[in-house]
Amino acid sequence: MKGVAKVIGPANPKIGETNFYEVASFHPGTVVTNPASIKWKLFQFKNGKWVEVVGPIKTGKKVTYSFPQKWYGKKLLIEAYLFEPEAKSPPGHIVQPVLGEKKIVKSEILNSQGGPLTEKPKYGQSILLKVTTENMPGDTLKLSLWERDTFTDKGHDPNNNQLLWSGEAKVLKNSGVVEKKINLTPELMRLSNKGYLYEGGEHEYYLLVEANKKKVISSTAAIANQEVNLSANKPAAKPTAKPAAKPAEEPSIADQLTVMVKNVLSWDPFNIRGTSKGVVEDPGDKENNKKKGKCFCNRDITPDELKKMVKNIRDTTFYEGKTITYYHQEKLFYIYAKVPQGDRTFAKFAEVLNKAFTKYDINTCARKIHFLANMYVETMYFTATREGKGINSFRYDPYRGRGFQHLTWKENYEAYKKVSGVDVVTDYEKVADDLNIAADSGAWYWKKTGINAYADKDSIFDTARLINYPGAKKSSSINGYVNRETAWRELKKIFNYPQDCVNKTVKPAPAGVMCPTCKTEHFNLSGKVTWQTQFDPKWGTKKQQNSACKKTCDAILNAYGLSSTSPLSKYQTAMENKDHTALLIDTNVSKIGVKYLDLQLKEGNPVQVGVDHDLNYRNASINEGTTDHFIVIVAKLCDKGRVYYRFYDVGTSHESKGKSENNRLYLNLSDYSLKGTTVYNGNHYTVTQIRNNHKK
């Protein structure tokens, strides 16, 4: 008999460690001239016999084996042979892997299918947390998911990063793997935006794993800071560069070709219909807008005026019931970028802003209002001239958003370098760190993109989309749109625009009727808004109709030219307590919500609101656990001085009851709650949500 006689090596190899096995002897008369002729196979003892483990065949007199977690405690046979394996011992060597050093090998954030994140997940989708271990079967791991708010994109800082979720999980005995699916809910989006109030286009997630006094952190995963679009008609994808704007309401053939060629060939549009420096001229820039008066047209904004503007806007925008002023006081440009301490003043802010306004024809009240309103969000409430922390968080890094309007993408940095002579391509951080360049680049981009033309029309939707997302079809696609709109409204009040403006091109919004009894304006849209019922066959079966109140309210808004509302864009004015035994009014949020409600009615828009009519309704299993039903507010009126809001109720098939004049929600000025009774069944309603409107 010829061949291998005996194999030696560790009988109890440790999981995860490399072990050597070699041929100890051959049968008499065996001649081996080439060690590569010696082959090795692995067998597992199953059902009373040795079964071959399929895998690569090793060769040589001495080889290595490393056993993964799945072989822990299994009976295995390692055999070397020259001709055919015998599947027995000897010549094979019986081994049984044992536990070695406990290790957390890897922690990962993957897509919902367990693959790598090739695209940024959005809120409404899910991700998979995966941990791979060695020698830890049955051990308990502590997992926690965090959103990174620190400048560096490495390490774990529990004091400055935001905890999103935590839990425990046992390691599977056979695989050594732990997996946890995480749904990206609106609550996670709210928490992720909590760190610095406005996080920009994405959130940076990481997974922390703790066990046996050891910690392992995953690589950072980028999560899109937006809700997944559930509409069948999705808006066009965001272009890789911001195309030139179209000043006319109806795009000309030349304008359409500009955008088409730009998208297909990455063609440089800067010289079409522009000056030698590549700036698109606004109609009438050369001779128009030269009038002066008591308004802000064609004059500088003083540091004191600018300070008042910043304070008023921050005082009227809120986060978790507190004003933005509460978080930032009077601080300017102190987050993310390295703006010199001496430049973080209103005097310097006014200096660079006025210089840029003059240079790029941002010279009327309307243009200044729109520039500042959009800048407010782009710079995270006038605190950050740089988009986010870290250096490798965005797909367009290192050319992330910087400056007063967050100049983004390499081609725009190159274009600005070409017209300004400042090398921001090599030294891109100076766009954020130098306020002169931050202001100049922002105003340059504003003009060359043709945004002045839309500011002249006082269209906050258009100026916002051209700065943030040119392809947006609705306001919900634009980052921070609600705050842009709020800042725009507040600035118009400060500027007293258009009343005082000598260059006004738009008419003021129609005023309501001032009531001498309640001393407030009355608004009534009931003659313009069409009521609908949720008990319509278009919503499906009777069971489906019973839960179609939200869809029906959306349909009412859609018919009026407004988009369907989102749970991510609302004022949560009331919540049931933990035990669902009481309804708690949030007075601060309610006050803001009522103010928003009045502004929308004044602009001629109905407003969708959620209401609570029974505590613990359906075991608090719908919406956020408090809102039971949705209605649409169409008027603000009063009853002998007591202010109420008339609503349309879609929860009845009787139009006379659904749009009854007695469907009223009365305003309680002690806590700004809205409460009333619906005519069709006598249910008592308390408003719990006031949804934000967006144009289609």
Please specify the SSE layout and strand pairing.
Blueprint: E1 4-8, E2 18-26, E3 39-46, E4 49-52, E5 58-59, E6 62-66, E7 76-81, E8 93-95, E9 103-111, E10 126-134, E11 140-147, E12 162-170, E13 177-183, H1 186-192, E14 202-211, E15 214-217, E16 221-224, H2 253-265, H3 303-315, E17 318-319, E18 322-323, H4 324-328, H5 346-359, H6 365-378, H7 410-420, H8 430-433, H9 435-448, H10 451-456, H11 460-468, H12 481-495, E19 513-514, E20 521-524, H13 542-546, H14 549-559, E21 570-572, E22 574-576, E23 583-585, H15 587-602, E24 607-612, E25 629-639, E26 642-648, H16 655-658, E27 664-668, E28 673-677, E29 684-691
Antiparallel strand pairs: 1-2, 2-6, 3-4, 3-5, 3-7, 7-8, 9-10, 10-13, 11-12, 11-14, 14-15, 14-16, 17-18, 19-20, 20-25, 21-29, 22-23, 24-25, 24-29, 25-26, 26-27, 27-28, 28-29
Helix pairs in contact: 3-5, 3-12, 5-9, 6-11, 6-12
What does this protein look like?
The chain is an alpha+beta fold and 696 residues long. It folds into four domains: 4-95, Sandwich (Immunoglobulin-like); 103-227, Immunoglobulin-like (Sandwich), CATH 2.60.40.1930; 303-495, Lysozyme, CATH 1.10.530.10; 523-695, no CATH class. The protein has 16 helices and 29 strands. The protein has a six-stranded antiparallel beta barrel. It is globular and about 115 Å long. Residues 195-200, 229-288 and 505-510 have low confidence and may be disordered.
